Amino acid sequence: MDDQKKMAIIATKGTLDWAYPPFILASTAAALGYETQIFFTFYGLQMLRKDLSGLKVSPLGNPGMPMKMPFGPKWFKGINWNIPNALQCIIPGYESVATALMKQTIANNGVATIPELRELCQEAEVKFIACQMTVELFGFDHSDFIDGVEYGGAATFFEFAGETDICLFI
Amino acid sequence: MDFDKELDARGLNCPLPILRAKKTLNELTSGQVLKITSTDPGSVKDFAAFAKQTGNELLSSSEAGNEYTFFMKKK
Predict the structure, then answer these.
(1) pLDDT of amino acid A2
(2) Which residue among A24, A32, A120 places its CB closest to the CB of B54?
(3) What ipTM goes with this model?
(4) Which chain A residue lies closest to B52 (C-alpha atoms)?
């Protein structure tokens, strides 16, 4: 029995905002000396794509998300643009605009980007496992994903998860 | 306080100060001291927690203005 601490994460979301928790926790765990694995399944596979520009954030149907402008004077930045869902639906490109604003806010706050955090995870030898079943289900090809990803199923996940100190579903 | 290497983590937010510190500590040898400067208020608790969990010794943690300074001795 080794005393190496371990953490496993199941990452299931495929949006810009939800890409943060798995990569932040995994990179930090690795820095603290944890052996870490992330199992990417369903929409979480988006986080393994070579091109991460498809990760977007949507305020639609997400009442917890403040819509604030990342530029302008302080009073202007403080305004929460409460746009009704029905209106969000019919404005073309609304999601892309919201994503661009979010990326600017992220940069303004000195928060790492997703590509940066993913790279830090890889440098720290966090193991990435993609769920083969959902890769096929969504018609992805292994060539869509970055190098160094392993492919497996639920049993592969349990082999490692069964020995972990921390196990999270995100 | 004397130190062997300095890390400027100002303007960076969680978890970058910790990740950069870990990387920089890897370049030091045991007993050497790393000075870290940050502006992230969360880093005060984070560096204490990092030290506790990794065995690197947090020699001091201080605040001046809106900047935080840490001295960490490599395990």
Answers:
(1) 67
(2) A32
(3) 0.85
(4) A32
Contact A110 B12 (CB under 8 A): yes
- Counting the structural domains of chain B, the total is 1
Do residue B19 and residue A32 have CB atoms under 8 angstroms apart?
A: no
Percent of chain B with pLDDT over 70: 100
Residues of A in contact with B14 (CB under 8 A): 24, 111
Closest Cβ opposite residue A112 in set B16, B50, B54: B16
Per-residue pLDDT, A23: 97
Residue B56 belongs to domain with CATH number: 3.30.110.40
| Model confidence pLDDT, tens digit, residues A48-76 | 999 999 899 988 888 888 888 888 888 88
Give me the helix-helix angle, B43-54 and B16-25, nearest 10°: 40
How distant, in Å, are the alpha carbons of A102, A152, A157, B15, B75 from that of B62? 32, 47, 43, 19, 21
**Residue B66 a catalytic site member:** no
pLDDT < 50 stretches in chain B: none
C-alpha B57, offset from chain centre = 10
Please work out, in degrees rounded to the nearest 5, the angle formed at the alpha carbon of residue A147 by the alpha carbons of A145 and A149.
Answer: 75
Domain membership of residue B65 as a residue range: 5-73
